[in-house]
């Protein structure tokens, strides 16, 4: 298990991380989401040992992160981290050797991953001559070429076309299925929701929510989507707050009323074509969580 335990970090007067705590289980895809500057990249760099935290600790298999552990982590930075004038194949083989593979195993791994990620035809090209999407594929090859025990990926889907997104998604799922913990950040929340086992939301350096998407849906007031009755049918209904209303339907939030109360009122107002609990997507959950009032240090 990758265990991030209460890590904090300041840059001068700026508090970048404030007691950030979460775990990534073996075989789990963990989506790490937050706005720009929320603390995602700083957290990942501390996991890698690139930065030192001011407090807290990161542990892998119960051990603090050290040079030996870092050799077994596959890391993909948000910024391009490859040598632009070096050829793809030579560069990947060099990186594999740095992580401890011998020459034969390194070459075999380069062939396997460039083929798997669709860049085998560019293996003799300089990185700078590739499209941004192909550079991103090569960057993932670099994270995978040494058969890592942990994957830490910062915005791995940035700049990819839909086909490449599917290829990369499949590869990450396959790695997780072998028992590898995979943590990645992304602003593509629909993709995170579809792909990840659990999600962590960070805002202003604090973890504000973590769990499966279904778990993140719990805790708020129940909402119901109703279509059929004319607009305005729920206005003034006791124990109900109208969230949205329009020609395609009405979304109400229960505030004391039951779903059966709402159903009876809807049927009385006109024919009901659909009546179902509202299951908010991750995009909506993220917006609600991040927009919630911040907890001050005195309150925490």
TrEMBL record:
- Which InterPro entries does its entry note? AAA+_ATPase, ABC_transporter-like_ATP-bd, ABC_transporter-like_CS, DrrA1/2-like_C, P-loop_NTPase
Keywords from UniProt, A to Z, are: ATP-binding, Nucleotide-binding, Transport
Q: Where is the ABC transporter domain?
A: 2-229
Q: Which domain of life is it from?
A: Bacteria
Q: Which GO terms describe its molecular function?
A: ATP binding; ATP hydrolysis activity
A Pfam family this protein belongs to?
ABC_tran
Give the similarity note.
Belongs to the ABC transporter superfamily.
Protein name per Swiss-Prot or TrEMBL: ABC transporter ATP-binding protein
Recorded source organism is: Pseudonocardia sulfidoxydans NBRC 16205
């Amino acid at each position: 298990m990758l265990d991030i335990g209460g890590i904090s970090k300041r840059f001068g007067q700026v508090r970048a991380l404030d007691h950030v705590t979460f775990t990534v289980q073996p075989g789990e895809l963990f989506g790490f989401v937050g706005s720009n500057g929320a603390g995602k990249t700083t957290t990942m760099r501390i996991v890698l040992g690139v930065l030192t935290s001011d407090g807290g600790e990161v542990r892998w298999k119960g051990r603090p992160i050290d040079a030996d552990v870092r050799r077994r982590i596959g890391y993909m930075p948000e910024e391009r981290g490859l040598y632009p004038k070096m050829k793809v194949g030579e560069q990947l083989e060099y990186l594999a050797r740095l992580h401890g593979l011998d020459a034969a195993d390194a070459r075999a791994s380069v062939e396997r991953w460039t083929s798997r990620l669709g860049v085998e035809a560019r293996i003799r090209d300089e990185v700078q001559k590739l499209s941004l999407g192909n550079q991103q594929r090569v960057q993932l090859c670099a994270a995978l070429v040494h058969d890592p025990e942990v994957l830490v990926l910062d915005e791995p889907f940035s700049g990819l076309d839909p086909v490449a997104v599917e290829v990369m998604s499949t590869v990450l799922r396959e790695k997780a299925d072998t028992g590898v913990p995979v943590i990645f950040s992304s602003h593509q929340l629909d993709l995170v929701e579809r792909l990840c086992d659990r999600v962590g939301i960070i805002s202003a350096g604090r973890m504000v929510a973590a769990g499966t998407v279904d778990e993140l849906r719990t805790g708020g007031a129940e909402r119901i989507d109703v279509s059929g009755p004319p607009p305005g049918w729920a206005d003034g209904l006791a124990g109900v707050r109208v969230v949205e209303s329009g020609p395609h339907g009405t979304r109400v939030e229960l505030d004391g009323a039951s779903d059966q109360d709402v159903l009876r009122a809807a049927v009385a107002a006109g024919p009901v074509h659909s009546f179902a609990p509202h299951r908010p997507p991750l995009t909506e959950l993220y917006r609600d969580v991040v927009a919630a009032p911040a907890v001050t240090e005195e309150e925490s």
